[in-house]
Amino acid sequence: MLKRVLIALLSLTSATVATAYDPIVLKRGWYRADRTSDGACLGEVGTNGQFYVLTVAGLIPGEEARLVITNGDMKPIDRMVRADGAGRWQEYYIPFRSNNGEGAVVSADITSESCALPLQFTWQRKRA
């Protein structure tokens, strides 16, 4: 239910490629960790230093894309995702290392028939 509410809010807040990143998150003090465009699509990563949000705008509405996330020596995440009715896809990601590692470079590649977006950011484990 919460995921559907978030998707609905995100669809209302932005319908253009120029505003792929969630403006609600920006207002809460998050910052962009990476941004890339392949002409037709825009991909962005935002963070508050602990949680990350991956966003793509400019996909064909309902289009499937392959998401591959690598994080150091962790097993890659490799799965299909789908754009919403406005051609946007967004998902939150919390990086961690199973071996209690200190952090790593995370690569998130989103590839569809209409877009190819490589995103990358470096994270560090938050100390208590």
Head-to-tail CA distance between termini: 31 Å
Look at the structure and give the mean pLDDT.
Answer: 80
Order of helices and strands: HHEEEEEEEE
Strand content: 35-45%
Q: Work out the radius of gyration.
A: 14 Å
- Biggest β-sheet, characterized? 4 strands, antiparallel
The total strand number stands at: 8
Shape: globular
Q: In order across it, which strands form the biggest sheet?
A: 1-2-3-6
Structural class: mainly beta
Tally of DSSP helical segments: 2
Low-confidence stretches: 1-19
Overview in brief:
Helix content is 13%, strand content 45%.
Molecular structure report:
This protein is mainly beta and 128 residues long. Helix content is 13%, strand content 45%. The chain is built from 2 helices and 8 strands, in the order H-H-E-E-E-E-E-E-E-E. It has helices at 2-13, 23-27; strands at 31-37, 42-47, 52-57, 64-71, 77-82, 88-93, 103-111, 116-124. A 4-stranded antiparallel sheet has the order 1-2-3-6, with no helix packed on it. It has a 4-stranded antiparallel sheet with strand order 5-4-7-8, with no helix packed on it. Strand 4 and strand 5 (77-82) form a beta hairpin. The longest helix is centred in the first third of the chain and has 12 residues, at 2-13. It starts with a helix and ends with a strand. The model is unreliable at 1-19 (pLDDT under 50).
